[in-house]
Specification:
27 helices, eight-stranded mixed β-sheet, six-stranded mixed beta barrel, about 900 residues, alpha+beta, elongated
């Protein structure tokens, strides 16, 4: 110490007046490494080198610049260097802080990247905010979107005035035969207005003309940029070539740019060629329109409603059941992701707040421990603003290091998440680490630096220099307000952790409940695929039925196949419906609701292949249904309850198509099948029925059927022989939508599984941070109350009493956090209510379990410092200065 005092004489005179305080600080540092000779020497040399290095600069600064004219950039660099040295001396605590912030930044970076692609990134078109989505709705049919009738669209286009242009779209896949191979590719039938709506131009050739977009128009096609590059190697002479689409040659007239593939993966466009004069057209299209400048979506809605009056006037919808629906294009496409996006965004923010509270507590404890050092700096002339800037610089340094690591970790974690749920995001969503993500990372670094650095900086401004300089001893317990701030930060951590734990637990329980739901059909050992027949070669129902029956015969002959069936619409795929009247049936429901009935046509073998159960009566067999004088139908339980409430067994009752009750048009109910979850495990079944495939005749047109094959072994192994069967029957027909029912069911749950996993991960991180916060605060308290604890034990306090005292303090923090967090959780869970299947957002068991987990982990975190406190040696504690 004498040598250090001698070195201090190198400093300017005004600094030498604080020799006693500076030597006291060195003595405190040496006391921390007492007994370690190497550490003591390194500490002394570091202090000595700091004096030798700073002395010339202090003399020069006072001579040339004055005591208070330090440049801002030089000040920042000095603070940054000091922060790095300070953190290097406390490697353990610094590593914990960095790990905490890295996890928080990673979570928020991953969530932002995902939400940016979904909700914020503009669509790849000129002025995309003026693009609107068009459809029709029928509340009485319980349908938010019915699809658009072409006749209705035709009248809209003539009478609406709020739009620059509007187009009709019918996305469909087509059979494409080229070079001896057949593929199923995604395409769309569209009206000629599409380029005007999207403001895009072909890169080669042209788009359809109005004359080509008419019934019996020429067979022309426009291909996409991806198909042009992959199938034609980007040849400039592709315009004029032909392609066989649905067994008919089509002339290529243009190539669309890559952005035209929005919103799916459309690879070619065909003219929709609608006829407004045809009666009884289906509601099967979607619309897209561009608003005129200055027109709001509400004005466009009113204009479209006015234009729709022409539909009523033309007697197309005498009951006024169907009405137009319009919304912004992005709102339509992101509607299914709003709840999930809100949950993920809130989860990321909560993790960030918990991390900031955790680190703020650590930084405040560190600032309290450095009170004497900060007091001396203030006595030397540093004002509160200067010291605040230093502390914020330290916070920024930590946040910057965590930001770099967290951005990388977040991007890696998001890639892993997306890999676990392939094909669940729309194809138009761009998820990538670009300038927007980097800008967000910079912003999150700045926000976190302020959030966790502000509290210690504010505490510095309240510091009394004279009391700090005059304090003897190397330790200080901090003021009562400071300890309350530390306790409050932990309470906040626990409260926010409770919200995340409740959310994660409820979602996990809901997902578990969902997996236990009986789908009503066989999931294991079933493979399905679909084929679509071109009208050129299969022009009527008789030819189509003959082909489907030939496929079934060949499939049943494959070794390992125990049953095969055909159906128009298998579970978890599509919807096709109609309206029916029941003989002696109930009238429409409350408010005139009349839901569309799911209508399927199936072969007799389908029910056994899919394991569908019968409740009453039986399924049709053989050629039952061929005789149109004995029409039969199998209905499901929901249909039976809707049409004949109170009737236990409706077998033998009759139904007909709505409005068609003429003689010979009735269908007799042959059986009642058990409800199946056709639309997914989370969606209740609606009324549905099955007609026999044998009833298809030459007047019908069913150009697409799916096949279900039950196997004795692994179902995916049956796909190669099934493809051989299809090539032998018709080499121009590709199989598509090939899948196993187990895989289809898993894919239908992928989004819910991912959100449950993400929030559970956030909850785990939050729990770890909350436990770490309790441990850190109590460790700090125990460390700074050693003398007090030593006095208590010297006066007769037992180890058990000291242990209880510290544990009780930790328990108070947990109870305080739960007191705030549980009510907050109840309010927050309303956001997740649509995702909670089979569990209430206020489920008491979940809240009890979460409270128990937080209490037990909190007690565990408190026990370690409590044990340390109980092990204090009174003689050693009392001897510490």
């Amino acid at each position: 110490m004498a040598a250090y005092r001698l070195l201090l004489r190198l400093l300017p005179a005004e600094l030498r007046t604080y020799t006693d305080d500076m030597t006291a600080l060195l003595a405190a540092e040496l006391g921390r490494v007492r007994g370690n000779a190497r550490a003591s020497m390194m500490t002394w040399f570091a202090a000595a080198w700091d004096v030798v290095r700073r002395a010339p600069h202090e003399h020069w600064r006072r001579r040339h610049l004055g005591a208070h004219r330090e440049g801002r950039m030089r000040s920042f660099i000095t603070d940054l260097r000091y922060a790095v040295r300070s953190f290097a001396r406390q490697k353990g605590s610094t590593a914990v802080i960095l790990a905490t912030l890295t996890l928080a930044v990673a979570a928020n970076t991953a969530v932002f990247t995902l939400l940016d692609g979904l909700f914020l990134r503009p669509f790849p078109f000129d002025d995309p905010n003026r693009l609107a989505y068009l459809n029709e709705q029928a509340p009485k049919w319980n349908l938010e979107y019915t699809g658009i009738n072409y006749g209705d669209f035709y009248l809209w286009r003539q009478n609406a005035h709020a739009f620059e242009s509007m187009a009709l779209i019918d996305e469909e896949s087509v059979n494409l035969a080229q070079g001896g191979t057949a593929d199923r590719v995604d395409g769309a039938r569209v009206t000629h207005d599409l380029p005007a709506v999207l403001r895009i131009k072909p890169v080669l050739g042209r788009f359809f003309s109005p004359e080509e977009d008419k019934p019996k128009g020429p067979d022309v096609v426009v291909i996409g940029y991806g198909m042009w590059r992959s199938r034609f190697a980007g040849a400039r002479d592709v315009v004029g070539r032909t392609m066989r689409i649905n067994s008919k040659p089509h002339t290529i007239i243009g190539v669309m740019p890559a952005e035209a593939e929005f919103p799916g993966n459309v690879q070619l466009w065909l003219p929709l060629a609608g006829d407004p004069n045809l009666p009884y057209q289906s509601y099967g299209y979607e619309g897209i329109a561009r608003l005129k400048p200055g027109v709001t979506i509400e004005q466009a809605r009113q204009d479209l409603v006015a234009a729709h009056r022409a539909v009523y006037a033309a007697q197309r919808d005498t009951s006024h059941v169907v009405s137009p629906r319009i919304q912004f294009l992005r709102d339509r496409y992101v509607a299914d992701f709003k709840t999930i996006g809100t949950a993920l965004g809130a989860g990321g923010v909560l993790v960030l707040l918990i991390a900031c509270a955790n680190v703020a507590g650590a930084m405040l404890a560190r600032a309290i421990f450095r009170k004497r050092e900060i007091g001396i700096r203030m006595a030397l002339g540093a004002n509160a603003s200067r010291l605040t800037r230093q502390l914020l610089t330290e916070s920024l340094a930590l946040a910057a290091m965590a930001g770099v690591a967290g951005t990388w970790l977040g991007w890696w974690g998001l890639r892993a998440l997306l890999a676990s749920v392939p094909d669940q995001l729309p194809r138009w969503v761009h998820v990538g680490a670009d300038a927007r993500v980097l800008l967000f990372s910079v912003a999150i670094v700045a926000v976190t630096a302020v959030l966790f650095g502000l509290i210690p900086a504010l505490e510095v401004r309240r510091q009394d220099v004279s009391s700090v300089i005059g304090t003897n001893g190397t330790r200080t317990t901090g003021s009562v307000p400071q300890r309350r701030v530390l306790d409050s930060l932990v309470v906040v951590e626990i409260a926010l952790a409770a919200v995340l734990l409740v959310g994660g637990a409820l979602l996990v329980r809901a997902f578990s409940n969902l997996r236990d739901v009986d789908p009503g059909f066989r999931v294991d050992n079933v493979a399905t695929f679909r084929v679509s027949l071109p009208h050129t070669n299969y022009s009527n129902g008789e030819k189509q039925k003959a082909f489907y029956q030939a496929v079934l015969d060949r499939l049943n002959a494959i070794p390992g196949v125990t049953g095969a069936g055909a159906i128009t619409c298998p579970p978890l795929s599509c919807h096709w419906g109609s309206f029916y009247s029941a003989e002696g049936g109930a009238p429409p429901g409350p408010n005139g609701t009349d839901p569309v009935v799911l209508t399927r046509i199936a072969s007799p073998g389908y029910f056994s292949a899919m394991g569908i159960k019968i409740r009453h009566g039986r399924f049709f067999t053989g050629n039952e249904g061929v005789d149109h004088k004995a029409r039969v139908v199998v209905v499901n339980e929901s249909f039976a309850k809707r049409m004949w409430p109170g009737v236990n067994d409706p077998t033998g009752k009759r139904i007909s198509y709505r409005g068609d009750t003429s003689a010979g048009r009735w269908f007799t109910v042959l059986g009642v099948s058990k409800d199946d979850r056709h639309y997914g495990l989370a969606v209740p079944m609606r009324p549905g029925l099955y007609f026999p495939m044998a009833a298809i005749d030459s007047t019908d047109d069913y150009g697409s059927f799916a096949f279900a094959v039950h196997t004795a072994g692994e179902p995916s192994l049956i796909f190669p022989p099934m493809r051989s069967v299809m090539r032998e029957l018709d080499p121009d027909l590709p199989m598509y939508q090939t899948r196993t029912m187990r895989g289809a069911l898993s894919a239908s749950l992928a989004t819910r599984r991912a959100i449950a996993a993400a929030l559970s991960t956030f909850a785990t991180i939050a729990l770890m941070l909350a436990v770490g916060g309790i441990y850190a605060v109590l460790s700090y308290v125990v460390g700074h109350r050693r003398r007090e604890i030593g006095i208590r034990m010297a006066l007769g306090a037992q180890r058990a009493q000291v242990l209880r005292m510290v544990v009780r303090q930790g328990l108070k923090l947990v109870i305080g956090g739960l007191f705030v967090g549980i009510p907050l959780s109840v309010a927050a869970m309303r956001v997740l209510s649509s995702l909670l299947i089979g569990v209430s957002p206020k489920d008491p068991l979940t809240y009890i379990v979460v409270a128990a987990i937080l209490t037990l982990t909190g007690l565990g975190a408190a026990f370690v410092p409590a044990r340390r406190a109980a092990g204090v040696d009174p003689t050693v504690a009392l001897s510490e200065s």
